[in-house]
Amino acid sequence: MRRYLRLVVLCLACGFCSLLYAFSQLAVSLEEGAGGGGGKPQAAAASWLGGGGRGAARGAGSAGQAAHPGRSDRCKDFSLCYWNPYWMLPSDVCGMNCFWEAAFRYSLKPQPVERVHLAVVACGERLEETVTMLKSALIFSIKPLQFHIFAEDQLHDSFKVILDSWSFLQTFNYSLYPITFPSENAAEWKKLFKPCASQRLFLPLILKEVDSLLYVDTDILFLRPVDDIWSLLKQFNSTQIAAMAPEHEEPRIGWYNRFARHPYYGRTGVNSGVMLMNMTRMRRKYFKNDMTTVRLRWGDILMPLLKKYKLNITWGDQDLLNIIFFHNPESLFVFPCQWNYRPDHCIYGSNCQEAEEEGIFILHGNRGVYHDDKQPAFRAIYEALRNCSFEDDNIHSLLKPLELELQKTVHTYCGKIYKIFIKQLTKSIQDRYDRPPKER
């Protein structure tokens, strides 16, 4: 009986060794295939190890053999795993080492860097506001950013000059687009609400190669990394295609529940100034509606909605989005008010509990409050970021003067709670700029 057990164990050991050898040769052949057919294999792949006989990148093919003539520790020299493309290794080269090295090299290939796609639509006098928004995104963000800027033709040159002057950052790319609407109804779409605002409705149809996108209004300021709101995409369930914040937290001062003459989402509607979109899902989905029993895709539902409700809507494209998600509530992910904090959250008293607890994440200065004296707390944040440069010391030093400016606003309801305006901003600066450069 013991003889049979020994035989079985021996057979298993031989089979395991054979399997390891086969995988070794397969991994090597795959690596060489990835290196370009009959061309020279990629020698630099061994650079994941820095020393101890394993070496950084060396020459490959016959060059690797000539570089170490008569070397006695060739078994330890991983670069010789590329020695022969015909699944043959010299007798003094360890196949086991080659197996492990090839496996590590194959699994540790650098993956494409994920970019956060950020879109904005700028028309009229919105250049400075848009540039300040983009700057706030760059100051704190971790992942590289891809800006999609839709602007009137006369603004393109100004955007190019400013954004090209930021190229030393090497943390973003940008694309400029003209304002475009469906040709048969272009004039009607352009005059809907503010000039060009309804362009956002057509982003899934224009940016066909973009999977997901964060759209923001020009009057947005990021007080924490864009990466954090981008990560909410992972919280979508299988039916959700977009995310927005409520228009109001307090129904007694809500606009939609008091004045709207059309359907709207939830108790108080949603605000579209910050809109996170899975555009692949948006393009694929068939939407329920109150115009026909047939479900319509995104590109087919917009114009019929406008024709039906154009005499009833006040806030243009935002109203159309509310109508769409009223009929398709399962498709919307609602994030808290701290991701879209507006004067309405403090103008009559504080009503965004999440911001009171954790601070404001994204500041939305609608109603032109960055440029008048009605809400000086909002204006103080805007001017601090507008005047800030990208140098670490400059960013870090903006906090103390900003707090002093905010203390001057305590005569307003928003100013009384000024600490929530800098709570998250302080944390973001500490997280991003208090660490040594190599750790960022």
UniProtKB/TrEMBL annotation:
<dbReference type="GO" id="GO:0035252">
    <property type="term" value="F:UDP-xylosyltransferase activity"/>
</dbReference>
<keyword id="KW-0325">Glycoprotein</keyword>
<comment type="similarity">
    <text>Belongs to the glycosyltransferase 8 family.</text>
</comment>
<keyword id="KW-0735">Signal-anchor</keyword>
<keyword id="KW-1133">Transmembrane helix</keyword>
<dbReference type="InterPro" id="IPR051993">
    <property type="entry name" value="Glycosyltransferase_8"/>
</dbReference>
<keyword id="KW-0732">Signal</keyword>
<protein>
    <recommendedName>
        <fullName>Glucoside xylosyltransferase 1</fullName>
        <ecNumber>2.4.2.42</ecNumber>
    </recommendedName>
</protein>
<keyword id="KW-0328">Glycosyltransferase</keyword>
<dbReference type="InterPro" id="IPR029044">
    <property type="entry name" value="Nucleotide-diphossugar_trans"/>
</dbReference>
<keyword id="KW-0812">Transmembrane</keyword>
<feature type="signal peptide">
    <location>
        <begin position="1"/>
        <end position="22"/>
    </location>
</feature>
<dbReference type="GO" id="GO:0016020">
    <property type="term" value="C:membrane"/>
</dbReference>
<dbReference type="GO" id="GO:0016266">
    <property type="term" value="P:protein O-linked glycosylation via N-acetyl-galactosamine"/>
</dbReference>
<keyword id="KW-0808">Transferase</keyword>
<keyword id="KW-0472">Membrane</keyword>
<comment type="function">
    <text>Glycosyltransferase which elongates the O-linked glucose attached to EGF-like repeats in the extracellular domain of Notch proteins by catalyzing the addition of xylose.</text>
</comment>
<dbReference type="GO" id="GO:0140563">
    <property type="term" value="F:UDP-D-xylose:beta-D-glucoside alpha-1,3-D-xylosyltransferase activity"/>
</dbReference>
<dbReference type="Pfam" id="PF01501">
    <property type="entry name" value="Glyco_transf_8"/>
</dbReference>
<dbReference type="InterPro" id="IPR002495">
    <property type="entry name" value="Glyco_trans_8"/>
</dbReference>
